[in-house]
């Protein structure tokens, strides 16, 4: 809403979330399917400016890389390009340690555990060493209603379908083969970062300029992974200034 006075904004529920299609099969959540959903949604409206956070950023990068005709500008908020992130989580260092939750989410019964006791473990996962004061009262109740509607299984299926290789801390893993030549972002790209993020560490974007030569970085102090909720006005001002 803070940029809607300047732009026509659409914020869809992606596959498996909210009121959107939530297939049971893990293979329905492959990267190609997620990108295809947004490609179909954009249709003939593009090229557009696309904004993504976390998993939304992964899909936004996919659109910019594989459907460049649809993307005029790319804005990512605390999200990662596949190559720098895969390098970081395969190295066995701090980002590998910070990403061990992904291996938990991929486990067979993680969804059941996250749903127990009124989503207590899911909320704890979200709030680990981060400011979650924004998720309380009616907003928290609305989130729980959405989680009950779509179910947690479809949410964790995003992680189960991901080809990311997460190394154990101190035990580097072999990098998977990536189609490097296809993973370039040619459009103008803005990366906004809440610098206190303990889930995605700064090293998760090391070398991004190699794949996005037209990159602008903008950091926000006193904010973490949930910077969109913690500093919405600052995020909006950065976006409006960059797009002016």
What are the key terms here?
alpha/beta, single chain, 244 residues
Topology record:
Layout: H1 31-42, E1 48-53, H2 55-66, E2 71-77, H3 82-90, H4 94-98, H5 100-106, H6 110-127, H7 137-150, H8 152-161, E3 189-194, E4 215-220, H9 227-230, H10 232-243
Parallel strand pairs: 1-2, 2-3, 3-4
Structural summary, described in words:
The chain is α/β, with parallel strands linked by helices. The protein has one domain: Rossmann fold (3-Layer(aba) Sandwich), CATH 3.40.50.1820. The protein contains ten helices and four strands; from the N terminus they run αβαβααααααββαα. It has a four-stranded parallel β-sheet, sandwiched between helices. β1, α2 (55-66) and β2 form a beta-alpha-beta unit. α1 (31-42) crosses α2 and α6 crosses α8 (152-161). The mean pLDDT is 97.
Quick recap:
This protein has 244 residues and is an alpha/beta fold.
Q: What structural class should be given to the helix and strand makeup?
A: alpha/beta
Low-confidence stretches: none
CATH topology: the name is Rossmann fold
- Count of individual helical segments: 10
Number of strands: 4
The CATH architecture classification is 3-Layer(aba) Sandwich
**What would you give as the CATH superfamily?**
Alpha/Beta hydrolase fold, catalytic domain
- Distance between the first and last residues' Cα: 17 Å
Arrangement of strands in the largest sheet = 1-2-3-4
Mean pLDDT: 97
**Proportion in β-strands:** 5-15%
Rg calc = 17 Å
